[in-house]
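hey can u check if this looks right to u? its 179 residues, i copy pasted from the old doc so theres a chance i mangled smth
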Amino acid sequence: LETQTTSSDLTCKKMRDKIWYNFIRSKYQAIYLCYFNSYLRTIDRVLIIITTVSSSGSIGGWLIWTHVPYLWASILGVAQLINIIKPLLPYLKDKEQLSETYIFYETLHLDYEKLWIEFEASEDVNAASKKYFELKEKELQILGKLKNIRVNNYKKIERLARRDWAEYLSINYDVKVEK
């Protein structure tokens, strides 16, 4: 027996593929942003420690600095430079918005997961299509508000995010992805 693929079967498959792609894409983006945000917060903490230590008069009074005054002067100079340029570093001033973006993608992922489950149960292309485009519009509105945030691709963060993403898909959906 030959089976014929109907137009509605293709439409159903296309909708399933769109939902699945955005479902897994949103999870990867959430994971990447979580790692990226953690990386920025670590840099911020290091800069705060350097400037705090250098501004402490009691540390400056340690006898060790009388033997190596150039080292203390260098530390003070670096700390002052950090104080000057830190407000200009785009990543650090946007870290709160990056946290919001991470939360947004986790929420979006959950919405796509609900849509995926609903669609798999009903295969109602019209209802799924409506909800799908509502989610895409929601994503565009949020990204419009966050358009000035820069998120660079760092290989180490990409590797970590891809590993966690592959593990998530494997555990929850039995999907194998190269790490």
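The mean pLDDT is 86.
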